[in-house]
Amino acid sequence: MRAEFFIKSFCRIENGQVMFNGNTIFTTESEIFSNFSKETYRHFEISYPKFFKMDNLSKLAFLAAEIILKNENLDADKNNIALVFSNRASSLDTDRKHQKSIENSGSIFPSPAVFVYTLPNICLGEISIRHRLYSENSFFIFEKFNAEHLQLYAHNLLRTKKAEKVLCGWVEFDGDDYKAFLYLVEKNAEIPHTVQKIESLYYNE
Amino acid sequence: MRFFLTHNKIISSLGFDSKAVVDAISNGNSGLKIFHNPELLPSPFCASIISSEKIKSEFNKISKAENFKKLEQLLILSLAKVITASKIELGEKVGLIISTTKGNIDVLENNRHFPKERAYLSELGKTIKNFFGFKNEAIILSNACVSGVLAISVAKKFISEKKYDHVFITSGDLVSKFVLSGFQSFQALSPNPCRPYDKNRTGINLGEVSASVLVTSSESLSAGVQEILPSESVEILGDSTCNDANHISGPSRTGEGLYRSVKLAMKEAKIEASQLDYISAHGTATDYNDEMEAIAFNRLGIQNVPLNSLKGYFGHTLGASGLVETIIGMHSLERNTLFASKGFDELGVSEKINVISENIEKPLSIFLKTASGFGGCNTAAIFKKVEK
After folding, report:
1. Which domain of life is it from (chain A) (predicted)?
2. For domain A6-202, which architecture applies?
3. What tens digit of pLDDT does each residue of B269-324 get?
4. Which of residues 112-131 of A touch B (CB under 8 A)?
5. Among the three residues B227, B247, B265, which one is the final residue of a domain in this structure?
6. ipTM greater than 0.90, yes or no?
7. Residue A118 with chain B: CB contacts under 8 Å
């Protein structure tokens, strides 16, 4: 059966490496995410000071979305690109920071600038603000990458015309580990939007 | 295909089933109380908290409470009732959605009896899935304060794509030190019972509830199941979720995302503003939220539709709020009664809205549920009473 929708582009960020449509487009020796994310931001000449206020999960998601969407020549106010993201650890990286600040050490106090990031969907809000997307945002938590549910959800949004395009994927930040894998689904492209194909792109086969 | 919200159960400080909770609301009772508990927050705070002892004693009737966290006990207790009432066998085509913002986040605190691994939401999913023997992995939705309504829309999508015939949704969040301290850092907490849309509103109260519901479709209802649908069942006519694309911790001043989501939900439902009998709004009682809603509802031309916020009865229940408030809306239609927006006295938003000041009995058929949350998200859904 011919697929109705297609994957136009995909981006993967992990181990100090940025890949776009299967090609490595940037790599650094930085093992620490904070350095790597700064170098990536500079390398792609992104100019968006709010980036530096974001938590790690939002920075990671923001960078992967930036790589994909900068090639889309988005027409401000007319984009209907839904965001359907998922991961395993939710916002635990920032949750742990907020938790530290409330453990009565007396030296740190809870900060609204940290607390607001204790929700995984905040990274979707950051991307929506950056690209002026007034569209659907959904954030799911799965034990591991769940291509089937993402595929069905994106398919439904496109089929019912609730979205013109869907940016889907996985953004995980936990301890020292990070991984982003995002892909853009729409009507006119080459790669079939099937569970099998999504899995093979995710596992980099 | 038509989609329905059917069997439901609420556990709250107001009562241990939907009927008891709706009766309490109907009588104007609130579950909000002032607590002096330095373990949770250094200063006194107002919240709706369910007694752990009461939950344990209920839970021990079906399993061993000591093996489960408070939130798990709550979710299991409410979901168990819905599964039993539905008489649906948990086969391959039955899905499970869990709506929560923070899950078991309290295990991050030191000296807790449970391992820190339990803070992962996927662990919460496994616990619920295994307790009942669901065949599919739990789908956990964590999308701030719109999660509860969005979960209904997610269930509808998976049924529509024929992945599932029926989807059980359970939702809940606890009033924890983690969340209290965070809202306190925003100076958003009111020390007294909250007063949505009122001139003298001073912020939000947090609350904990567990709410569960069964979502099903016209194609999945076998004769035996259809006959036992409860009389408060509603059809989901339309739904939409839109981002403000404006700010991560404050709502858009023009209510852009809320405006768009209601507009799109009404378009899908194919209804006009004049057909709405009632709006179950978000109404957190912060200055910005309530003002934003008044602006959005005026832009939509639905400012005269009777509206309430249920936060004055059980506070802001975070990941459960959209679902528990939808369930109350279902019962409101069934009883043909509009419930007073508790805490409201004098209008305190810049544009006129029709806040319900006392219970009104009148024929009701269609209602709109809205929610807005951090990250700039907004969800709207429209429901219609199922006439037997």
Report:
1. Bacteria
2. 3-Layer(aba) Sandwich (3.40)
3. 999 999 999 999 999 999 999 999 999 999 999 999 999 999 999 999 999 999 99
4. 112, 115-116, 118-122, 124-126, 128-129, 131
5. B227
6. yes
7. 102, 178, 182
